[in-house]
Please model this.
Amino acid sequence: MPPSATRSFAAAALLGAVLVATPAAAAEPAAPDAAPRELSGAERATVPWVLAYLERGPAALIDVLDPLSPLAKLDPADAARELAVRAGPPGGSRWELATVVPSLKDRTVVWRVGFPSGMDETLLFQVVADGGAFRLREVDMLSEPSRLSAAAELPRPGAAGGDGAKETSRPGRIAALTVVLAFLGASFLTGAVLRREPVGRAVLGVSGLALLVTAWIGFKAWERASHPPPRAPRPPAEAWSAGARLGDLLPLREALATGTGSEAEKLLSGLPRSGPVAEVARLWSAQRALSEMDLARAGRLLDGFPPPSRIPLAEVLRARLLALTSRESDAAVAYERAINLGPGQDALWWEAAQAFDLLGFQENATAFLRRLARIGSREAGAWYALAAQAAREKRPEEGERFFRTGWRLAPLSRRALFRSGALWAVASRPAIYPTLLLDQPGEPAYATVAGNPAPLTLPAGAVARLTASELRVSLGRSEMTVPGGAALAPEGILPSDAGAGEREEERRALASLPRLTTAALNAGALTQPLLRREVEAAVSALVKAGRFEEIVALTAGFPPRSESVPLGILFRKAEALRKTQRVEEARAFLAELTDSPAVTRSSTPVVLFSLAELLVSVERYDEAIRLLERVAVRVPNAGVEDRLRQVRMEKRLAGSNEVLPTDHFDVVYPPDRGAAFARRIGELLEAERRRLLALVPLTGPGRRTTVQVLPWDEFAMTWATVPGVVGIYDGKIRLPLGGVRELVPEVVAIVSHELAHAMLAELTEDRAPRWLQEGVAQHAEMVRLRSNPVPGDVSRGRFLSLSSLDAVLEALPDPSISERAYQQAFWWVAFVERTGGRSALQRLLLAHRDGAATSEEAIGRVFGDLGGTFQRRFLDWCSGPAPKVWTMDVLRYDDATAGIRAVGTPKPRKTPEVPDSLRPPPDEW
Model:
C-alpha cells in the first residue's frame, strides 16, 4: 500500500474512532449527586411566551423581542413571518421544553415542537437579560446552519490575514524546511566522502541520502502547496448562516405542518432553486419523505447536503435514514456529527441514546445517558433507562436512585411499569415497592409542588395538569409540556395521575370517530398526514376498547396494497377481520398485504414480526416463517428464535398430526397415540364444556375451537417459554398432554382452565380484563382446596388493587408477583359471586362484552354506584366472613369404566400414572 494511502486509511480510522468511541470512553458513572436541574430564569421566562404563542401566534413573540434583535429592525409584518416560519402554526402543535448544558442555561432555551402532520422542529430561543427580565434576541431552528460551527471556523482573534494568511504561509514553511533538509543531506554526503573509517563513512552516507530523499519529497509537497487544485465549492447549504430571511417559506411551513400534502407540492414548485429558502425547503421535504417512509426520495434530497454539514437537521435526518436502511455505523456517526454542531441539549442526546441502543451501540448509548445525567436532564425516560441499566449490571442502590429521580419527574403508568423488564427489578425492591401504591384502586396522583411566588397565568380555555413535577397545559388542540415545571404550576391545580394524558387522547380519538368514518372513505384520503394520524389514533383506541366491528367499518375503503395507508392501520384491519369471524377475508387480505410493495421493501423488524403474527393467526405458515427468518437475521434474539421454532412446529402439526372433530372441537393429536386417545380427550372437552356453561353462559352452537395435544417435550420447547406454564389459550387451546395415560384431576384442571379462557373469549368477544379472565378460569378448575391469601398480603403490603392486578396479569413481570396476582384474582371472583350470586358474575362478564371500558364501569353497571367502596368491601369480606380455605367438589375422569364420578366414591382406584415430565413441583399445581 503506498504511503499516502496508508496515511489516508489511518486518518479515516482515527476519525471513526473519535466519532464513535469517544462517548464510550466518557462513560464514567454519573456523579453521585446528579439530579435534574431546576428551571433557569431564562427557561422560566420562555414558558409564558410559548403559551402566549399558542394563543396569539407570532404577535406574542414580537412583544418580547429585544430592541437589538435583528427581528426588531424588520417591519412587524415581516418579523411575524420570520417567527411563524420558524415556530410553525400554533394550532394542534405540541411543545416540550428541553434541557441545555449548564453553560447555556441563561442564554439559550430549547423547545421541541411536534406538528399535526407528524413533522417536528427544534427551536433555539436566544435570550438576553434586560434589567432583571429576559428578552428574545433570536429564534433559530435546526434546519439553519449552527451558529456554533460557524464560530468555530472563524480565524483566531489577532491572526493576521485569517484563513487566507494561514494558507499562504504554508508553502513558505514547506520551502524553508526543504532547504534545511537539502543542506543537511549535502553536508552528510560531503562528510562521508571525506571520512576515512568505513563504518563512519557508511553511516554518514546513508543518513545523507535519507535527508536528500526527504528534501525531494518536501520539494514535491511545496509544488503541490504552491499550485493547489481548485477547491470544490462548499455545498449551497454551507454558504449561509442562521438568521437568514426565510419568510417566503411560510405557506410551505403551514402546509407541511398541518398535513395538506398536495398543497405543499404546489408551493415547492414556486420557490427559488438556490439560496437559504431553497435549502430549508429541501430539508423539510426530506423530513416529510421520511415521515411517509419514502426513503429513496429522502436520500436523494439529503445528497444535496454532503457530510459533514453545518446544518444539524441535515445530519439528524441522515442519521434517521441510515438507521432505517440498516447502516448502523453510519447512522451513529451522523448522530455524532449532529450533536457536535450543538448546542448541547438533552432532546437530541436522548434521541441519539435510544437510536444507539436500537442500533447495537450500547456503549455509546450509555455514554449519552450518563451525559444526560451530568447536565441535570429533566427527561424522565433517561433516568429510567439508567436505572434499568444499573439493574442489569448488578448495581441496585444506584438503580434505586435513578428510579426515584425518574419517578419524581414523571411516574410511569402501572402497565408501562410492569412491562418495563429490567426496570421492574428496581421498582420491586423493598425500598421502592411501597412508594408505588399498588394497593390504591386507581393510578395514584403525584404532585411535586414548590413554593412559587409567580405562578403561571393561564389564558381562557387552557387546562393545566401536574403529574409529579411535569406540567402540561392544553389549549384547544395544542399542548405545552414543561418537565420539572411544578414551580410554575397555576394556583389551585390538582395533581394528575400517570395515565390521565393517555385516557384523554383516547377519549378525543373516539369522539372523532363519526367524522373520521365520513372523511376517510378511501385510501387516498390518508395522503393528508393530519387525517392519517387521527385515523391511527382512533384505530388504536378502538383496539384497546375491543370494538373490532367499528375498525372494520372505519377501514373498509383501505385496500391491502395501498401505499398511502400506514401498515399499522392495515395490520389492525386484518386483526379486526379475524376477530369478527371473517377469517377467509382476513386470510386473503393478508396474502395481498404480504406481497405489497410496502412490505416487500420494509426491513423494519417490528413490522415484519407483527405481520408474521397475523399470518400465523390465519394459518399462513410459510409466509410467516419467511418473514420471521428475515427478522432473525436482523435481530439475533432468543425471543425471535423461540417464535420461529413455534411457528415451524405449528406448520408441522398442521401437516403431520391427526385431527378428530367433536361437536365443538377439532382435536389435533400425535398419530402414535391413536384415535382412542383423541376420542377420550374430545369426550373430556365436551363434558367440561357442558359443566362450565353454568359459569360461562354461552348460547347457540358456539364456535369451533382447535385443541392441540402435544407431547410435553415439544410443548416445553416451543410454548413453555415462561416457567410454570402448563397450558395456553391464544385462539387455540394448546395442552401438553400427549404423554398422559390417565385423566387425573391435576390434568383435568389444566384442560378446564384453558377451556374456560376459550369460552370467556367467545362470550365477551375477548373484552374481559385479565383479572376477571384468570379468576373465572381458576374457578373452572376442580382444585379441591385453596387458601385465602388476601389478609396476609394486606398485612405485608403486597395487596394489589384491580387495576394493578390487571396490569400484572397482562405483563407477568416476575414469578412472585404474578403468582400473587393469580391467587388474588381467584378471590376477587369469589367475592363477586358470594356478594351478588353467580348471576352477578355473569352480568359482569356481559357488561364488558357490551362495551364497559374499565372494570370500574362494569362493576358500576352490576352493583350500582358504590362511590369507590368496592375494594374496601372486598377487603372487609376477605378478612371477615370469607372462608379461610375455599373447597370445591371434584369430578373424576380417570376411571375409563365408570366415566364421570364424584370424589369420595368408595370404589378403589389405581394410583394415577402421570409422566414425571408433566408433573411440576406440588406448589405449582
In short: The chain has a mean pLDDT of 81. The first helix runs from residue 3 to 25.
